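chain below, 268 aa
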Amino acid sequence: MNTPVPAGRRREAIYEQATTVGLASVEELSARFGVTPSTIRRDLASLHREGRLARTYGGAIPVGVHPETSLRERLGRAHLEKSAIGRRAALLVEDGEVLMLDGGSTVLALARALRNRSLLTVVSTALKTLETLSNAPGITVECIGGRLRDVSGSMVGPIAEAALERMTFDRVFLGADGVDPHLGICEAGRDQARLKELMIRASGEVVVLADSSKIGAAPFHAWTQLGTGWTLVTDDGVDEAQLKAFREQDVTIHIAPSEAEAEPGSES
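prediction:
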């Protein structure tokens, strides 16, 4: 085995690699530096605490290197997985409910899965979701106004916050840039995180929709805490190691198969 590199030099080398050619996996870094994977994970955690790297499952990315992607870009990613998540999440909805639908491409997939339902009221801040449900005959659609974030196509700000403080919902479906079992939902901005907090406060049930690439990811520094008793719907690209910490927090988990022809996933 190679002689282990001192921790300080090793962390600088990891950071340099992340900002130049991109970060390798934990296993590759472990082999390169002659240390155990747990040592590499401690290195990544240290760099994360210093604000130099944002942690993801299995590795990390440089803070600020990857800007927030637009809704249009996100709609082209993990399409089958998001559609499957949307179908699975729709099974949680009961007739007569009043729903709050957050912004984001995965929540939009849920909106598409709800178009043929009836006796629902759907409230949303997201323009694409409102458009998707605007002609659904069995759904009453309500719009929350505010300041439009062009990158996400959703409303934020004090007008949206004031509206949410005067409403309640049976269930809220939230999107995320990352989901951590302890920190909650990662968002690109504090205004988005604050709005999610108000949605959660106003809702009887909280459901987070996140494809497997978001599990354990922390690309930004704004967070919405989830507390206890919430539900995660994700796709079958996730593995049990990723879900272990969520299960320890008593999160209800639903896995949706990503195959287009598959039946909606089952609770686990």
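The longest strand covers residues 203-209. Confidence is low (pLDDT under 50) at residues 260-268.
thats it, cya
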